[in-house]
Amino acid sequence: MSRRLISTGSPFEKTAGYSRAVIDGDFAFVAGTTGYDYATMSMPADVTSQSRNCFKTIESALKEGGFEMADIVRATYYLTDARDADAHFAVCGAVLGEIRPAATLLVVSALYKPEMKVEIEVTAKRRT
């Protein structure tokens, strides 16, 4: 299988020169995904909604590449406020509770836009 690029249509993808996901053989690499609702191009104010939107975008990119959420083997979470960790982890537990990928949480001083509270990236490996 050849390398395949997946786009969600975010204007950031073209501006910054990246793909939402890159499919390479049995692996999918989903780039740092923030909490935008791409249907409305709006960003909710709370970390819970942003985290849910991140996972919706990730699921869509994985599905387009022929993967499922259950294929996720690694996740990295970036939060701008450690006080949001419990709310974010509640969403992670609801979405990934049975999948349980290896995961890391980093608290960072800021993301690209001030309204961004969370960014998520994942790696998936197709189950054969």
TrEMBL record:
PANTHER family linked to this entry: BLR7761 PROTEIN, YJGH FAMILY PROTEIN
Protein name: Enamine deaminase RidA
Any coiled-coil regions, as ranges: none
Organismal lineage: Bacteria, Pseudomonadati, Pseudomonadota, Alphaproteobacteria, Hyphomicrobiales
